[in-house]
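tmp note - Na+/H+ antiporter NhaC family protein
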Amino acid sequence: MPLSSLTEDLLTVMTDEDVAWVIMVCGLMGSIIALLLKSGSSRAFADKLMRYTTNKPRALLGCWVMGIILFVDDYLNSLAVGTSMRKVTDRFKTSREMLAYVVDSTAAPISVLIPISTWAVFFGALLESNGVAEDGQGVWTYIQAIPFMFYPWVAVILVPLFILRWIPAFGPMKKAEQRAEKQGQCVPPGAEHIDDEIAHLEADTHAKGSIWSFLLPMASLAFFTWWFDLDFLMGIFVTLAGMIVAFIGFKKLSPSQTFDNILEGFKSMLDALAVLVAAFLFNEVNTSLGLADYVITTVEPLVSAEMLPFIIFTVMGFVSFATGSNWGVFVIILPIVAVLGQNLGADMTLVIGATLSASTFGSHACFYSDATVLTAQASGCTPFQHAFTQLPYAALAGCIAAAGYLVLGYM
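out:
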């Protein structure tokens, strides 16, 4: 019975360890953001940045550079940069959709390219378990494939070209930018409630924040995530505990304000978490239906060594985009890719690069992926508004990457 199957899938999702991890990470990051807002730390950081950002390109390039610096985890990147840069970009009449695009393009793509990240650890372990890399050599094999991860490279490089208008804005993003520049309406219609939540958290605060009370928690997040073997949840726990002690100890917030805002911050992420749970449920349904296996089985007879990287990128990119799953699809397809690549004598570094590129494309472009939802929430627009305006840009990067795999496959 379809309804009973759906309830079983929902229970499977809600009791899944990875889903619980995402809920805790996102909710507690909301708590950290709420404390930064209520203590005046976020405002102090934005005020400091405004002294050095004299125009719109500088403000957006600042977002791009911050995204590269916060490479440890794509969640940290999206939530920290999006939240802290809203006021700065608003000052120069930048649409929230453009801010979300810049932030999202330095989240998963940068985390993939720099091998000291949660992505590198996860995928390195998978390469070992599937026999693509020897024991203990998973991350090194991953590093060797980095030059061939065309999609994240192109996605990151395109950002400053759009910021500096060397490539003009087009599609829905052009309309969003015209709305912001001509009408001064940075927040897209229908996303006002996100700003209202931020205004509520900042209201009635008399605490005078400092730039250090913003930078130290961000540095703590990055350091302790790295210290605990790239476990972002442990980094959040330690950072949140430190903030509670420091903010109460230095009397930036009272104990009641501190714990009330921790709860308020968690609650502010409920909309995003609801979309994420729905996305995980959708992925579970697709898995039950065998969508990924069907697509892979259909394509397998058509593969040659020269076409393998191109086919992997296009097919897996489509599956990852359709399901909203990036790590999950990689788990499913890697055993098949490993066998195909070895049987056909294909260049495995190029094959791995194409596989990771496809996974990154799914994370970056899908309307309901975790990266899209969290970036939209942090930047102040809805997931659909962010994904709809970003999709043509992601498609451009995808086409360039696909052409690269097609050319290199025959070289």
